[in-house]
């Protein structure tokens, strides 16, 4: 029950970002995003995928025969990075709760890993199709 002598906690007390507006909010959101990318760089899987993306994104511009092919090739690579970021955030949140084994924690981590696997399979299929089309004709 609420104690009348202490004011209730407000969302603005918990997160200073909620008090920002306009360009200041966008600027700070960008800084948080950069911090997230830096944190992800400490994850081996993300680092490997990011380095692969540095090679594959320029290659997509060469391999794609039009903007649609380029968008599919580049988009599938970026999707892997996005899903890996989400998976890493799930793992970090689960580890924050506790490192002890729990079936729900295992399920959450397994589902995040499965999402990464599906994004990698999609990326592989898109690139294989583009490479096949490029050299089979």
Structural description of this entry:
Helix 3 packs antiparallel against helix 4 and helix 4 (about 65-95) packs antiparallel against helix 5 (about 105-135). The longest helix has about 35 residues, at about 105-135. The protein is mainly α. The protein has two domains: about 1-40, no CATH class; about 45-130, Helix Hairpins. It is flat, with a radius of gyration of 21 Å. The mean pLDDT is about 90. It has helices at about 10-15, 20-40, 45-65, 65-95, 105-135. It is built from five helices and no strands.
Strand content: under 5%
CATH class placement of the largest domain: Mainly Alpha
Q: Which structural category fits the helices and strands?
A: mainly alpha
Shape: flat
Number of strands: 0
Output the CATH topology of the largest domain: Helix Hairpins
What percent of the residues sit in helical stretches (DSSP H or I)? Answer: over 70%
| Cα end-to-end separation | 73 Å
| Rounded mean pLDDT score | 90
Give short descriptive properties of this protein.
137 residues, mainly alpha, 80% helix
């Amino acid at each position: 029950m609420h104690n009348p002598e202490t004011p209730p906690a407000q969302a603005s007390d918990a997160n200073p970002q909620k008090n920002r507006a306009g360009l200041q909010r966008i600027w700070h959101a960008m800084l948080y995003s950069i911090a997230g990318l830096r944190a992800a760089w400490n994850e081996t899987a993300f680092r490997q995928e990011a380095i692969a993306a540095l090679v594959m994104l320029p290659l997509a511009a060469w391999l794609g025969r039009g903007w649609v092919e380029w968008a599919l090739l580049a988009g599938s690579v970026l999707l892997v990075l996005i899903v890996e970021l989400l998976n890493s955030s799930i793992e970090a949140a689960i580890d924050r709760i506790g490192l002890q084994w729990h079936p729900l924690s295992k399920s959450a981590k397994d589902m995040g890993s499965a999402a990464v696997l599906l994004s990698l399979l999609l990326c592989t299929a898109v690139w294989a199709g583009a490479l096949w089309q490029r050299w089979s004709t």
